[in-house]
Amino acid sequence: MAEWSISIVPTGAASGPQAAFVSRLQPDGVNATTGDVVTWNNETPDTHQPWPADDQFNPLKGVTPSDQNYLSNPIPAKHSSRPSWIVRNLTTNKPPVRFCYVCALHPDEQGVITITS
Q: Which residues, given as ranges, of the chain have pLDDT below 70?
């Protein structure tokens, strides 16, 4: 089991996404295995909330904190996510599985975790 930290960083863009999800250890995107732990570290001045999405980055509806694909409560500026997310292969597809997510508060901010086993 590994632990992955994804930073939420300002983009500095005048338009479009104002923040990006960046893994410092895996800059091309997080490759995780079932049982790994993922957290988000908000380095921006705004609140963000990672939220599960479909393959087209449309936020999933009806997700509650008791669901396995609930990623985090809202993360205030300069704080880390709570709770941590435990990686699970939530589909019947064989790995690798692309797990897409967005910011619930800023849906144009998007990220992907690849579940490799």
A: 89-93
Question: CB 12: neighbour CB atoms within 10 A?
Answer: 8
**CA-to-CA dists, residue 26 to 1, 52, 64, 94, angstroms:** 16, 20, 29, 22
106 exposed, middle or buried (CB, 10 Å; 0-12, 13-18, 19+)? middle
Give the Cα separation of 5 and 24 in Å (integer). Answer: 8
Are the C-beta atoms of 96 and 116 separated by less than 8 Å?
yes
pTM metric for this prediction: 0.91
Strands (E), the chain: 3-10, 19-23, 30-32, 37-42, 50-52, 85-86, 97-103, 110-115
Cis bond upstream, residue 52 (ω within 30): no
Q: What is the largest CA-CA distance in the chain?
A: 40
Domains of the chain plus CATH, in order, are: 3-115 (2.60.40.420)
